[in-house]
Amino acid sequence: MPRPTDRDRQSDRSEQHVSSSALQRGSRLLSLPFGAAGRATRGLGRRIAGGSAETINAQFRAETAEQLFRVLGELKGGAMKFGQVLSMFEVMLPDDIAGPYAVQLRKLQDSAPPMPTSRVHAVLAREFGSDWRELFDDFSARPAAAASIGQVHRAVWRATGEPVAVKVQYPGADRALESDLKQLGRLTSLVSPLAGGMEVKPIVAEIAERIMEETDYQLEAANQQQAAEGFDGHPEFFVPRVLAHTSHAMVSQWVEGTSLARVADDPPERRNELGLRYARFLFAGPSEVGLLHGDPHPGNFLVMPDGRLGVIDFGLVSKLPDGLPPAMGRLMRIATERDAERVTAGLKAEGFIARSARNVDAQELLDYLSPFLEPAASEEFHFTRSWMQAEFKRVGETKAHGSVVQQLNLPPSYALIHRVWLGGIAVLSQLDVRARFADILDEYLPEWKTPSDD
Fold it and tell me: Rounded to an integer, what distance in angstroms lies between the CA atom of residue 194 and that of residue 185?
């Protein structure tokens, strides 16, 4: 095998768009707290000089949010994915604090600083061959969207003449993501004491394994095609078919639509209808096609001109060929029936109570869990920012008092389900949706309904 030349090495470096060096990535992340400290010092100087505290604090938050978007967007990989998760959960924070962060973080749901056109062409040549242009009648050099590990270009597929989305992975994104997840894994020993009895390490390992699968577009293509075939002809959902793929590039049907996040200012009737459709898809995936879409942020859900919900990005999924776990619906039903002892016994059997827990107060546990079940127990529920903020505050106060919450655990098999459940509820709260949420559970959640309900 010939040895690489200096020209080869230089080419490899030029294509390394996403740094995979833990030291380099760590130093960029450290710029966030250091930047915040510098702004705080400047703010103190302005207050001493007589500046308005309210104005200075608002400017501080705006500048910090802008830096957060820029750094996470440039790093991409796990850092940017962390930012995308944050963008869903800003709904939990008080409005005066969340405001500037919401504006900047929502950009991460749809876009990020793109990579140069020359690198895009280099990736496509490496994946599809030097004659890759022959696959398309037209190819837009400007990306239509950019995300954590890749960006999307609009093109026209020569074989059929239809518009397509060409997803191109950033060179080095797989190594960068692996580096970020390793750093996260090293932090589990520090986080564990703060998590009560929860076993953090296996949860992090499970999520990291699922996230790393996102870097293999072969797997994503198989997941997406499975969903496309399963939802083919569905009146509410559309998943684009995959036309070609390699490990680092993928071509699929183009989905024309508007991001679900954009309906936040629409009339209540439209928000309610689309919010309910969004929630229905999250539950319908496991039930109808055996897949749980694991990335529920609104940028992956497009409202199409005909009203259907176009769903993209199947890199992060949980394979559930038998649907959602029956124990999930059964325990939720028992909790709504206020049977504290049966709920506690069931949670312990499923691993939701830490092995180290002793003398769990069943009624205290039920009282803690009950507010989370409000959407399921109500005939119609209104998801609002104020409700989400109140729940976030309640959980924080409960943890501070060291009560039953410290005895809870999250089994690894439920890690992605938990993320989707919380993420979905956060999005519904952002959209201010009022809907019959329990009807979705009646249709898709095994053992949620009692035998007399059928």
Answer: 15
Q: Which of 131, 295, 313, 367 is catalytic?
A: 295
- Can you give the pTM of this predicted structure? 0.73
Q: Per residue in 179-222, pLDDT tens?
A: 666 655 554 444 444 444 445 555 556 555 666 667 789 999 99
Only one residue has tokens 């059964």, namely 330
Of 85, 83, 102, 84, the C-alpha closest to 93 is 102
Q: Where are the domains of the chain?
A: 7-110, 117-171+216-319, 326-453
The answer to whether 360 touches 405, Cβ cutoff 8 Å, is: no
Distances (CA, A) of 129 to 121, 133, 203, 207: 10, 9, 40, 34
Architecture field, domain 117-171+216-319:
Orthogonal Bundle (1.10)
Q: Are strands 309-311 and 237-238 parallel, antiparallel or unpaired?
A: parallel
For residues 302 and 316, give the distance between their C-alpha atoms in angstroms, rounded to a whole number: 18
Is-catalytic flag, 313? no
pLDDT digit string (tens) for 30-82?
A: 444 444 444 444 444 444 444 455 554 556 555 655 555 555 544 454 445 55
Pick from 248, 17, 258, 214: nearest CA to 114: 17
